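ingest -> validate -> predict -> emit
validate: passed (alphabet ok, no gaps, 300 aa)
predict: started
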Amino acid sequence: MTELLQHLINGLSLGAVYALVALGYTMVYGVLQLINFAHAEVFMLGSFAGFYATRFIPKFREEPRFLLILLVAMVVCALLGLIIERVAYRPLRDKPRLNALITAIGVSMFIQAVGQLPWFMGPSPQFFPSLIPNVPLVAIAGVSLTSLQAVTFGSTVALMFGLHRLIFHSKMGAAMRAVSFDGRTASLMGINPDFVVGFTFALGSALAAAAGILVGLGYPRIEPTMGVMLGLKAFVAAVLGGIGNIRGAMVGGIVIGLTEALVVGYGASSYRDAVAFGILILILVFKPAGLFGRMAAEKV
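emit:
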C-alpha cells in the first residue's frame, strides 16, 4: 500500500506537467482546429529560457527568485508563441487545414534544428540549475512528498485555477469561446478573432514554459530535443481528455502521468512509452472524441 501511494504521488507530479502542456494543444485546437506540433518545442524553449535566466538574475531568496525566473520564461515563450502564430499560421488561416498541419511539423523541426546550433543551445545536454532545494517535506508511514513535488503541484494548481477563471469568468474567455464556436460570427459581434487567436497562442505557450521550468527542476538534463517525447505524451493526454476540452486536458494529463508512474513503479519501465501510445490507440478506436469530448466537437 505504501509503495502504491508513493507511485500515485509521483504520478500526480508527472501528470501535472503533462496537463500544462496538453492545455496548450487543446486551446489552440479549440480556436483554430489546428494541432500545433510546434507546441512541444515551445515547452523546450521555456526550459532553456529559464536556464539562461538563471545566469542573468542574481541570487537572492530562493522562492522569489524561482517565481521571477518562472515569470521571465513564461513571458519569453508567450512572445515566441505570438511570433509563431503571426509568421507561420496566420498566413494559412484560410488555406486547407493540411497546409497548417504540415507547417506545424516544419516549425517543430526548424526550432529543433536551430536549437542544436553551437551558437544557440548546442547539441550537448545542459544541466538545469537547482532553484529550490529538493528535500522531503512530509513523510508519513513511508510515503514522502518532496518540496519539488509540492512546488509542482502548487504551481500547476494555481495556473489551472487562473486559466479556468480566465476562460469561464472573463470577457476574454468569453471571446475565446465565441471564436472557437464561430470566428466569423464572433467578428460581427465586435470581437477581433486575430487578437483572440494570438492571445490563445501566447497563453498556451506561457503554460508550456511553466511546464519546461518544472521539468528542468525535476529532470535537470535539458536539450533541444527534450520536447519530442513529452510533447507527444501531452498530445495523447489532450486526445484522451477530448481535444478542445479544457477540463479534459487536465484530467488526461493526470491519467497519463499516473499510468506512467504505475508502469514504471511495478517494473515495466521499458513499456511506459508503449502504454501511453497504446492508450492513444484505444481511445481513438473506442471513444475517438475522448473522455470529455463529444462527436460534435466541444471546443474551448
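The mean pLDDT is 86.
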